[in-house]
Design brief:
By secondary structure, the protein is α/β, with parallel strands linked by helices. The protein contains ten helices and eight strands. It has helices spanning 32-42, 59-75, 91-94, 108-113, 115-123, 131-134, 137-144, 149-159, 175-185, 197-215; strands at residues 2-3, 23-28, 47-51, 79-83, 100-102, 126-129, 162-167, 189-193. The strands form two sheets. Strands 1-3-2-4-5 form a five-stranded mixed beta sheet, sandwiched between helices. α1 links the parallel β2 and β3 (47-51). The protein is globular and about 50 Å long. The model is unreliable at 1-12 (pLDDT under 50).
Length: 217
């Protein structure tokens, strides 16, 4: 768990009706840097609990980890904001637990890009690479997915036209890794600068839902 607790709270920070100290954000580790930056700037009193992004490769394990983390926080009287897409079969049940809300979005790319841009790029054949996942691309393809160079090229070529690295500006673009991944997959790569506003808007909307729950009789 990492707690985002800056020393100073400046004007322009979000003011919430519900006590932000009573809210824990549970998010996928693929967003760790981005969520940390957004909470520091907009919701400095929230804490965030990041789960390993590799759990996406094992949806049932992800569901178990999420259920355990949610139960732990709710039993201690805290509310939970889930920053996840619809990433496992039990997600709908988890977000209906009293005191729990989930940000809108079908998946991590949808959350980061916004639905319109995500759909547009997907139709154009983009395969998205997050900064956190790009460092692990070889492990993901060869170990998690059990693919080698030949079947990766065949599979990726059938489904995608290019690799799109989502550059949120919070870490240097790993050009060497992108070139290696491009050669391995047989697809060209490009860097797309991504603003954090869609993700910020999703967090604000979820915070509003928590406030509504707090106000309900």
């Amino acid at each position: 768990m990492c707690d985002i607790q800056p020393d100073n709270v400046t004007s322009g920070k979000e003011v919430m009706a519900v006590d932000p100290h009573d809210i824990v954000v549970i998010c996928c580790g693929v967003f760790q840097a981005e969520i940390g930056a957004l909470l520091e700037n907009d919701f400095p009193d929230l804490s965030v609990r990041c789960l390993n992004s590799m759990l996406h490769m094992h949806p049932e394990k992800l569901a178990i980890k999420l259920e355990s983390a949610i139960d732990d926080e709710v039993r201690q009287g805290r509310k939970v904001m889930l920053i996840y897409g619809d990433c496992c079969m039990r997600m709908t049940a988890l977000e209906t637990v009293p005191g729990v809300v989930r940000v809108r979005g079908n998946n991590c790319c949808d959350l980061l890009l916004g639905s319109g841009e995500y759909r547009r790029l997907s139709r154009e054949g983009a395969f998205f690479l997050f900064p956190e996942w790009t460092r692990r691309w070889r492990h993901i393809f060869s170990v998690e997915l059990g693919l080698n160079h030949d079947n990766v090229v065949s599979l990726m070529g059938d489904m995608h036209k290019r690799l799109v690295y989502l550059d949120t500006g919070l870490s240097p673009v790993p050009e060497d890794e992108l070139r290696e991944c491009s050669r391995y997959c047989g697809l060209p790569w490009e860097v797309l600068k991504v603003p954090l506003e869609p993700l910020r808007a999703a967090i604000r909307e979820a915070a509003g839902k928590l406030e509504t729950q707090e106000e309900a009789p």
